[in-house]
Automatic annotation (TrEMBL):
Cross-referenced Gene3D superfamilies: SGNH hydrolase
GO molecular function: hydrolase activity
Superkingdom per UniProt: Bacteria
Tagged with keyword Hydrolase: yes
Source species taxonomy: Bacteria, Bacillati, Actinomycetota, Actinomycetes, Streptosporangiales
Keywords: Hydrolase
InterPro entries for the chain: SGNH_hydro (IPR013830), SGNH_hydro_sf (IPR036514)
The protein, known as: SGNH/GDSL hydrolase family protein
Sequence ranges assigned to domain SGNH hydrolase-type esterase in this UniProt record: 2-167
Amino acid sequence: MFVGDSFTVGSGPVRTWETYATETARRLGWQPVVAGAGGTGFVNQGRVGRTFEQSYVAELAWRPAPDLLVISGGHNDRRWTGPTVRQAAARLVWSVKAHWPDTRIVMIGPIWMDGAPRQAYVVRDALAEVAGRERVTFLDPLKQRWTSGGRAAVLLPDGVHPTAAGHVRLAQWLVSALRATPVPS
Protein backbone atom coordinates (compact mmCIF):
# COMPACT_ATOMS: atom_id res chain seq x y z
CA MET A 1 0.00 0.00 0.00
CA PHE A 2 1.01 3.59 -0.60
CA VAL A 3 -0.18 6.77 1.07
CA GLY A 4 0.95 10.14 -0.21
CA ASP A 5 0.31 13.35 -2.10
CA SER A 6 -0.13 14.22 -5.80
CA PHE A 7 3.18 12.56 -6.65
CA THR A 8 1.72 9.29 -5.35
CA VAL A 9 -1.91 9.56 -6.48
CA GLY A 10 -1.28 11.39 -9.76
CA SER A 11 -1.82 14.91 -11.03
CA GLY A 12 -2.67 16.62 -14.29
CA PRO A 13 -2.55 14.18 -17.18
CA VAL A 14 -0.91 11.46 -15.05
CA ARG A 15 -3.58 9.20 -13.57
CA THR A 16 -3.22 7.05 -10.44
CA TRP A 17 -2.54 3.92 -12.50
CA GLU A 18 0.35 5.74 -14.22
CA THR A 19 2.19 7.01 -11.12
CA TYR A 20 5.51 5.83 -9.73
CA ALA A 21 3.56 3.98 -7.02
CA THR A 22 1.62 1.80 -9.43
CA GLU A 23 4.58 1.43 -11.77
CA THR A 24 6.69 0.24 -8.83
CA ALA A 25 3.99 -2.27 -7.93
CA ARG A 26 3.81 -3.54 -11.53
CA ARG A 27 7.56 -4.02 -11.68
CA LEU A 28 7.60 -5.92 -8.39
CA GLY A 29 4.48 -8.00 -9.09
CA TRP A 30 2.47 -6.38 -6.30
CA GLN A 31 -1.22 -5.57 -6.06
CA PRO A 32 -1.15 -1.84 -5.21
CA VAL A 33 -3.60 0.10 -3.09
CA VAL A 34 -2.93 3.83 -3.37
CA ALA A 35 -4.37 6.39 -0.93
CA GLY A 36 -4.00 10.10 -0.28
CA ALA A 37 -4.65 13.28 -2.21
CA GLY A 38 -2.91 16.13 -3.93
CA GLY A 39 -1.81 18.97 -1.67
CA THR A 40 -1.71 16.83 1.45
CA GLY A 41 1.17 15.99 3.75
CA PHE A 42 2.04 14.83 7.21
CA VAL A 43 0.74 18.17 8.51
CA ASN A 44 -0.79 19.94 5.52
CA GLN A 45 -4.43 19.02 4.88
CA GLY A 46 -4.65 20.29 1.31
CA ARG A 47 -7.99 21.00 -0.34
CA VAL A 48 -9.40 17.66 0.81
CA GLY A 49 -9.00 18.65 4.46
CA ARG A 50 -7.00 15.67 5.65
CA THR A 51 -3.42 14.73 6.46
CA PHE A 52 -1.60 11.52 5.54
CA GLU A 53 -2.66 10.03 8.86
CA GLN A 54 -6.29 10.89 8.17
CA SER A 55 -6.00 9.42 4.65
CA TYR A 56 -4.46 6.28 6.16
CA VAL A 57 -7.38 5.93 8.58
CA ALA A 58 -10.08 6.68 6.00
CA GLU A 59 -8.68 4.76 3.04
CA LEU A 60 -6.38 2.04 4.33
CA ALA A 61 -6.71 1.10 8.01
CA TRP A 62 -9.99 -0.75 7.49
CA ARG A 63 -8.35 -3.08 4.97
CA PRO A 64 -6.39 -6.25 5.75
CA ALA A 65 -2.80 -5.53 6.72
CA PRO A 66 -0.42 -5.23 3.77
CA ASP A 67 3.08 -6.68 3.71
CA LEU A 68 4.46 -3.19 3.09
CA LEU A 69 3.19 0.37 3.52
CA VAL A 70 5.05 3.12 1.66
CA ILE A 71 4.48 6.57 3.17
CA SER A 72 5.65 9.11 0.62
CA GLY A 73 5.67 12.85 0.90
CA GLY A 74 6.56 16.00 2.68
CA HIS A 75 6.54 18.22 -0.41
CA ASN A 76 3.43 20.03 0.85
CA ASP A 77 4.76 20.35 4.41
CA ARG A 78 7.53 22.78 3.51
CA ARG A 79 5.74 25.66 5.25
CA TRP A 80 5.75 23.82 8.59
CA THR A 81 8.60 23.57 11.10
CA GLY A 82 10.75 20.49 11.48
CA PRO A 83 9.38 19.67 14.95
CA THR A 84 5.78 19.91 13.71
CA VAL A 85 6.49 17.59 10.78
CA ARG A 86 8.42 15.21 13.05
CA GLN A 87 5.51 14.97 15.48
CA ALA A 88 2.93 14.33 12.74
CA ALA A 89 5.11 11.74 10.98
CA ALA A 90 5.78 9.93 14.25
CA ARG A 91 2.04 9.84 15.04
CA LEU A 92 1.34 8.24 11.66
CA VAL A 93 4.07 5.62 12.12
CA TRP A 94 2.83 4.82 15.65
CA SER A 95 -0.73 4.50 14.35
CA VAL A 96 0.32 2.10 11.59
CA LYS A 97 2.48 0.02 13.93
CA ALA A 98 -0.30 -0.22 16.53
CA HIS A 99 -2.88 -1.27 13.94
CA TRP A 100 -0.67 -3.44 11.70
CA PRO A 101 2.25 -4.59 13.89
CA ASP A 102 3.65 -6.97 11.24
CA THR A 103 3.52 -4.53 8.32
CA ARG A 104 6.88 -3.21 7.14
CA ILE A 105 7.03 0.55 6.60
CA VAL A 106 9.12 2.53 4.12
CA MET A 107 9.11 6.32 4.29
CA ILE A 108 10.04 8.36 1.24
CA GLY A 109 10.99 11.98 1.84
CA PRO A 110 9.80 14.94 -0.20
CA ILE A 111 10.09 14.57 -3.94
CA TRP A 112 11.44 17.54 -5.83
CA MET A 113 12.17 16.86 -9.46
CA ASP A 114 14.27 20.03 -9.78
CA GLY A 115 15.60 22.74 -7.48
CA ALA A 116 14.32 21.88 -4.01
CA PRO A 117 14.05 24.85 -1.64
CA ARG A 118 15.95 24.90 1.65
CA GLN A 119 12.80 24.10 3.64
CA ALA A 120 12.40 20.81 1.72
CA TYR A 121 15.64 19.67 3.36
CA VAL A 122 14.31 20.65 6.80
CA VAL A 123 11.27 18.43 6.16
CA ARG A 124 13.51 15.66 4.79
CA ASP A 125 15.71 15.77 7.87
CA ALA A 126 12.69 15.67 10.20
CA LEU A 127 11.31 12.61 8.40
CA ALA A 128 14.69 10.87 8.35
CA GLU A 129 14.98 11.42 12.10
CA VAL A 130 11.55 9.86 12.71
CA ALA A 131 12.35 6.93 10.43
CA GLY A 132 15.63 6.27 12.23
CA ARG A 133 14.10 6.48 15.67
CA GLU A 134 11.13 4.29 14.71
CA ARG A 135 13.22 1.73 12.80
CA VAL A 136 11.55 2.50 9.48
CA THR A 137 13.46 2.49 6.21
CA PHE A 138 13.94 6.03 4.88
CA LEU A 139 14.55 6.76 1.20
CA ASP A 140 15.69 10.22 0.10
CA PRO A 141 14.65 11.35 -3.39
CA LEU A 142 16.34 14.74 -2.85
CA LYS A 143 19.69 13.02 -3.40
CA GLN A 144 18.72 12.14 -6.98
CA ARG A 145 19.22 14.16 -10.17
CA TRP A 146 15.85 13.74 -11.84
CA THR A 147 16.29 16.30 -14.62
CA SER A 148 19.46 14.94 -16.17
CA GLY A 149 18.55 14.55 -19.81
CA GLY A 150 16.23 17.57 -19.73
CA ARG A 151 13.50 19.06 -17.57
CA ALA A 152 10.77 18.68 -20.20
CA ALA A 153 11.20 14.91 -20.20
CA VAL A 154 10.44 14.54 -16.50
CA LEU A 155 8.46 17.66 -15.51
CA LEU A 156 4.96 18.72 -16.44
CA PRO A 157 4.58 22.36 -17.56
CA ASP A 158 3.73 23.33 -13.93
CA GLY A 159 7.43 22.76 -13.16
CA VAL A 160 6.56 20.64 -10.10
CA HIS A 161 4.89 17.37 -10.98
CA PRO A 162 6.45 14.52 -12.95
CA THR A 163 5.42 13.56 -16.44
CA ALA A 164 4.58 9.93 -17.13
CA ALA A 165 8.27 9.48 -18.02
CA GLY A 166 9.22 11.18 -14.74
CA HIS A 167 7.05 8.70 -12.86
CA VAL A 168 8.83 5.84 -14.65
CA ARG A 169 12.18 7.25 -13.48
CA LEU A 170 10.84 7.52 -9.92
CA ALA A 171 9.62 3.92 -10.12
CA GLN A 172 12.99 2.69 -11.42
CA TRP A 173 14.69 4.44 -8.49
CA LEU A 174 12.20 3.08 -5.95
CA VAL A 175 12.41 -0.51 -7.24
CA SER A 176 16.21 -0.38 -7.08
CA ALA A 177 16.13 1.19 -3.61
CA LEU A 178 13.65 -1.36 -2.28
CA ARG A 179 15.70 -4.24 -3.65
CA ALA A 180 18.97 -2.80 -2.26
CA THR A 181 17.73 -1.73 1.16
CA PRO A 182 16.78 -4.20 3.82
CA VAL A 183 13.41 -3.21 5.22
CA PRO A 184 13.38 -3.47 9.03
CA SER A 185 10.43 -5.25 10.53
